[in-house]
Amino acid sequence: MILDLFAGPGGWSHALTVLGIRDVGLEWDEWACKTRAAAGQLTIRTDVALYPVRPFLGKTTGLIASPPCQAWSMAGKRLGIVDQPLVHQAVADLAAGRDTRGQLLTFCRDERSLLAAEPMRSLQALNECGQPEWVAMEEVPDVLPLWRQYAAILRTWGFSVWTGIVNAADYGVPQTRRRAILLASRTRTAEPPPPTHAKLAEPESLFGPGRAQWVSMAQALGWGATDRPVPTVCAGGGPGGGPEPFPSGSRKTLIAARDRGTWKSQATSVMVKSRREEAGWAERHATRENRPADVPTPTFTAKAHRWSWSLRSNNQANATVRPINEPAGTLFFGHRANECVWVAEPAPGGLDEDRPAPESIRITAQEAGLLQTFPADYPWQGNKSRVFSQVGNAVPPRLAAHLLAPHLGKTLTPDDFTLAA
């Protein structure tokens, strides 16, 4: 049995499915559990902090843990940093067989902080049975000191352990998502898997092929291939992912309109056709010829108007903005300031200065899932807000597969993950 604590919507589980193996996930969130069920993943809906370890004793070969990151994430208040000494104390006590979580929880600024100590409760109980054979854990970079504490304890129990920061883009994920990783094994030397990608492609050498270039958003979404042109944009949410001007379901997203666009890879540009003819729009977007408000706005030709699209990670001043021919920044969701939106800028030499750029367009859940390396048809459950939250909290399956494959004696091939929709 492979036990997956805090299993979420199935990032680790989907990776194991690709590798031909199944796990048992423990998860509390209702909609993440429904997504897992729709994906055919075994799940126990429970509070991980309360569920007993006893049913897994003598049966567990691998343990996976990705505790909730909200207390530590840059997207939140990061009270986990303040609570970190208490979490270290809980880990030390649990490793010694003392459960002081109740007392320590009363002093935590964020009750979720202590969830990062939960894997040690399971590991201590399983260790008495000489299990598990291997461990894989993932969290935001600020949790690395805690993983190092885990590593010191696991080494006294006979594990080889590696801890460090990995960049998901180095493993073919179209996202420069940096995460703190712990890998441990009783049977092999623990070490990170060799990166398969680099910021710049590497040439072939006497030692074999070089690493491929990082996967871009355009590649992952299928917007760069000759038969998959970048989309025409017709409409979408207001600036910063604001209210949609059209009724729900009628918004023309980048994916929905892609077949009417033209891809120019050198400039990352698209043809834009406006269909916004509702009241007030024509006045705001009249051209320098002073076109009357009641005259439909014309089609923008590919020669005259080109746009360079980028993904903005949130609405904050320090938001990461990446052009579509690069990987995305770290995707995170949870409240309105963290919405990711597509923004357009004029490509050099291709835009009439008086022609307004399209408004920003909120990324779709399917696009977010693809950039997290879930398949296009992954059965997300819940409304948009719940799906976005699941996507942002999930481990990218492609990264997870690279981390797990050595423990399972598996080899990944380039065809194991199809990125484009």
From TrEMBL:
UniProt-listed Enzyme Commission number(s): 2.1.1.37
Pfam families listed in its UniProt record: DNA_methylase
Protein name, UniProt field: DNA (cytosine-5-)-methyltransferase
Domain of life: Bacteria
Gene3D superfamilies (alphabetical): DNA Methylase, subunit A, domain 2 (3.90.120.10), Vaccinia Virus protein VP39 (3.40.50.150)
The UniProt record lists the keyword Transferase: yes
Family to which this protein belongs: Belongs to the class I-like SAM-binding methyltransferase superfamily. C5-methyltransferase family.
UniProt GO BP: methylation
Molecular functions per Gene Ontology: methyltransferase activity
InterPro entries: C5-Methyltransferase, C5_MeTfrase, SAM-dependent_MTases_sf
Record keywords, A-Z: Methyltransferase, Restriction system, S-adenosyl-L-methionine, Transferase
Active-site positions on this chain: C69
Broad class of enzyme this protein falls into: transferase
